[in-house]
Write a structure and sequence with these properties.
- This protein is 68% helix and 0% strand.
- It is mostly helical.
- The protein has a domain at 8-50.
- Helix 1 packs antiparallel against helix 4 (58-66) and helix 2 crosses helix 3 (35-47).
- The longest helix is centred in the N-terminal third of the chain and has 16 residues, at 3-18.
- The protein is globular.
- The relative contact order is 0.16.
């Protein structure tokens, strides 16, 4: 699992723990479509503009995407 996937999973868990309505919605989706599909749909929801209720979580996603792309070898 990539660092980005881990962050999406963490945000998903935080999100369903924060609201009984959202927990019911997403757990129903997990039962219907499977966990992987529900997580993909949640990740797509994160990427949609205008989801201000998730904006505070973007910094965690950006760090996970940027950090692994740093230089891995010191060529000096």
């Amino acid at each position: 699992m990539s660092p980005t996937d881990n962050v999406v999973l963490e945000i998903f868990v935080d999100h369903i723990e924060a609201s009984s309505l959202e927990r019911r919605r997403w757990l129903t989706r997990v039962r219907t479509a499977g966990f992987d599909q529900a997580l993909v749909e949640f990740a797509e929801l994160l990427m949609e503009p205008g989801n201000s209720w998730l904006v505070r979580k973007w910094d965690r996603i950006e760090r996970a995407i940027v950090e692994p792309c740093g230089p891995q070898f010191n060529l000096n």
